[in-house]
């Protein structure tokens, strides 16, 4: 795109944005001032009059693809059973906000997700226009006179897109309905809904538009998005065709501009990490400009070839394939789950792992996975205490691992360690597969598996060291709590990868290496920590750090009510610990050394320090409780 063309597009986008903001400020007083009738997905007729016998009428705009909307269907189902009864003074109707879906497709979705509540089919978008819908899901409440008395969120499970709380602390919609039924004014008549944008567009036919899908947008999506957003993968919807992108254009631009997508949480380092998934500022500007210029399709001659993806295992048949011992049932809704599955590894001798490839059994609910090793039987004991497959924890696996063979997150491509390098998989070890599940609105059964690739001719072992601190004592309301952790290398090492780790209050982490000669080297910077997107960051070019280097991790935490991820409302005092409401500070780094005989002493030294620090933290917390 040349400079003049980009300037014109930017001006158009600004003018349209100002127009959109002005329209959003106008509040519809009686959205159903003119009586209309609509069909639901089953063909039933629903007269929608200005006034009605019901004291409160609830309309919730939904789609089957927005993850937040989909996650609310179980709750809406419970409200349907409570409100849509003959003697109820409340009625509840869902409004399907995707005008591209047919009634048959809506019925199929309702059947798959066990949805019984009436779903109005708004094929021409007239209800969306009448209510001036901005988000999906978004709830509206009308009183008996047809006046709009509430619009906004269903509850506060989400305070920001991509930031889900363990459970809702406010039931905003239900409270508004209760007030209307009781003849009382609604305390909060307007709240900000959190979800996907309500999309309505009329694509341009002009092939000479300033920004087009075929020439400008498709190359961005193909290179950065369709790895996950295609049939059979973890993305909640495909982004392969023009129609796929056009019907979601505003939402695509929104999540890319906020850097929520592609999922990559470390600061851009000009290719320092392998598989870096980031968009440039110019690419994001193109996506925004395409929305502002009515989503022109463009000349098919400009269309790039669709990327090719290998079928089956990405790196070919693994040397060993292991899977969960049984299916695990993920409920339709509720808080996210962190379940650990213990899988015995049957190998005749110690092996070295070059890489792993993880295959989720139920991609719609598997968020990410970390693969720990246990040679002491600790995980088996934890598993024996629970009746279901595996055992639940939050954060870590509930024991001190004896190793790790990596992990997986959406979009991650398996890559082998440099030639001859591998992580030790000791004979007699158990693989502890920790999976983060996020309920999708539909009950699912998962049985994920892992392909393991061994090193043909091992030369050096890759092993983990880490920085950690247990000094957390974060007061309620403190929004910028800072903590440091450090570890000094006892031998020369080569850095291979890093894994930062905090809990829900974490905000930023910065890790630097302070070298013996007084210089420093930046290792990793996480400007916006997100517990839901943990990953292992592999250096594109391994590098050496000398003995005596001090690795320092600095982290910040927000324990205020303004933190959308804060699990406590109101905020509570937070200390170190393993539970949801506790906090942590870790940064693991995978290293290797040419002195094979020094590996065991280094690991023992680190474990010893870890044990002492943990014991001291427990004693300090115990004494503080007594005070």
Automatic annotation (TrEMBL):
<dbReference type="InterPro" id="IPR008977">
    <property type="entry name" value="PHM/PNGase_F_dom_sf"/>
</dbReference>
<dbReference type="GO" id="GO:0016715">
    <property type="term" value="F:oxidoreductase activity, acting on paired donors, with incorporation or reduction of molecular oxygen, reduced ascorbate as one donor, and incorporation of one atom of oxygen"/>
</dbReference>
<dbReference type="InterPro" id="IPR036249">
    <property type="entry name" value="Thioredoxin-like_sf"/>
</dbReference>
<dbReference type="InterPro" id="IPR014784">
    <property type="entry name" value="Cu2_ascorb_mOase-like_C"/>
</dbReference>
<dbReference type="InterPro" id="IPR047262">
    <property type="entry name" value="PRX-like1"/>
</dbReference>
<feature type="region of interest" description="Disordered">
    <location>
        <begin position="557"/>
        <end position="576"/>
    </location>
</feature>
<feature type="signal peptide">
    <location>
        <begin position="1"/>
        <end position="23"/>
    </location>
</feature>
<keyword id="KW-1015">Disulfide bond</keyword>
<protein>
    <submittedName>
        <fullName>Uncharacterized protein</fullName>
    </submittedName>
</protein>
<dbReference type="InterPro" id="IPR036939">
    <property type="entry name" value="Cu2_ascorb_mOase_N_sf"/>
</dbReference>
<keyword id="KW-0732">Signal</keyword>
<dbReference type="GO" id="GO:0005507">
    <property type="term" value="F:copper ion binding"/>
</dbReference>
């Amino acid at each position: 795109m040349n400079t003049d063309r980009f300037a014109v597009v930017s001006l158009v986008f600004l003018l349209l944005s100002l127009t959109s903001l002005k329209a959003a400020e106008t509040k519809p007083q009686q959205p159903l001032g003119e009586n209309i009738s609509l069909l639901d997905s089953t063909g039933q007729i629903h007269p929608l009059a200005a006034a009605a016998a019901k004291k409160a009428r609830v309309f919730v705009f939904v789609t089957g693809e927005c993850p937040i909307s989909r996650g609310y269907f179980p709750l809406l189902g419970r409200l349907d059973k409570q409100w849509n009864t003959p003697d109820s003074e409340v009625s509840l109707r869902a409004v399907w906000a995707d005008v591209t879906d047919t009634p048959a497709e809506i019925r199929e979705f309702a059947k798959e997700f066990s949805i019984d509540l009436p779903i109005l089919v708004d094929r021409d978008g007239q209800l969306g226009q009448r209510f001036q819908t901005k988000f999906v899901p978004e709830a509206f409440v009308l009183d008996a006179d047809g006046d709009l008395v509430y619009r906004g969120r269903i509850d506060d499970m989400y305070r920001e897109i991509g930031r889900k709380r363990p459970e809702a602390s406010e039931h905003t919609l239900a409270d508004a309905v209760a007030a209307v039924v009781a003849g009382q004014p609604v305390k909060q008549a307007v709240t900000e809904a959190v979800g996907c944008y309500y999309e309505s567009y009329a694509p341009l036919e002009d092939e000479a538009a300033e920004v087009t899908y075929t020439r400008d947008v498709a190359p961005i999506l193909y290179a950065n998005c369709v790895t996950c957003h295609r049939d059979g993968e973890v993305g909640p919807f495909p982004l392969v065709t023009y129609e796929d992108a056009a019907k979601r254009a505003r939402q695509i631009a929104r999540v890319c501009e906020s850097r929520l997508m592609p999922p990559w949480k470390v600061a851009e380092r000009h290719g320092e990490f392998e598989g870096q998934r980031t968009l440039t500022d110019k690419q994001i500007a193109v996506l925004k400009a395409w929305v502002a210029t009515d989503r022109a399709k463009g000349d098919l001659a400009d269309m790039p070839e669709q990327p090719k993806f290998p079928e089956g295992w990405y790196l070919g048949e693994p040397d060993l394939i292991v899977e969960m011992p049984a299916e695990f049932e993920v409920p339709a809704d509720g808080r996210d789950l962190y379940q650990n599955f213990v899988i015995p590894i049957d190998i005749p001798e110690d092996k070295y792992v070059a890489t792993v490839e993880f295959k989720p059994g139920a991609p719609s609910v598997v968020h990410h996975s970390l693969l720990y090793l246990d040679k002491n039987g600790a995980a088996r004991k934890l598993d024996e205490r629970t009746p279901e497959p595996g055992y639940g924890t939050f954060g870590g696996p509930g024991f001190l691992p004896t190793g790790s063979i990596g992990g997986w997150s959406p979009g991650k491509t398996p890559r082998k360690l440099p030639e001859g390098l591998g992580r030790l998989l000791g004979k007699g070890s158990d693989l502890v597969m920790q999976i983060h599940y996020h309920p999708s609105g539909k009950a699912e059964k998962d049985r994920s598996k892992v392909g393991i690739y061994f090193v043909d001719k091992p030369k050096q072992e890759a092993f983990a060291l880490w920085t950690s601190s247990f000094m957390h004592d974060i007061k309620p309301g403190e929004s910028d709590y800072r903590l440091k952790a450090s570890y000094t290398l006892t031998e020369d090492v080569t850095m291979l990868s890093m894994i930062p780790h905090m809990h829900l209050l974490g905000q930023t982490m910065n890790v630097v290496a302070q070298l013996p000669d007084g210089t420093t080297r930046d290792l990793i910077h996480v400007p916006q920590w997100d517990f839901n997107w943990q990953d292992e960051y592999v250096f594109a070019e391994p590098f050496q750090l000398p003995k005596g280097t001090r690795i320092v991790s600095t982290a910040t935490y927000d324990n205020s009510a303004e933190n959308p991820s804060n699990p406590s409302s109101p905020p509570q005092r937070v200390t170190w610990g393993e539970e949801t409401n506790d906090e942590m500070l870790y940064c693991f780094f995978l290293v290797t050394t040419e002195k094979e005989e020094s590996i065991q002493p280094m690991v023992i030294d680190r474990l010893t320090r870890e044990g002492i620090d943990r014991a001291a933290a427990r004693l300090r917390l115990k004494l503080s409780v007594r005070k």
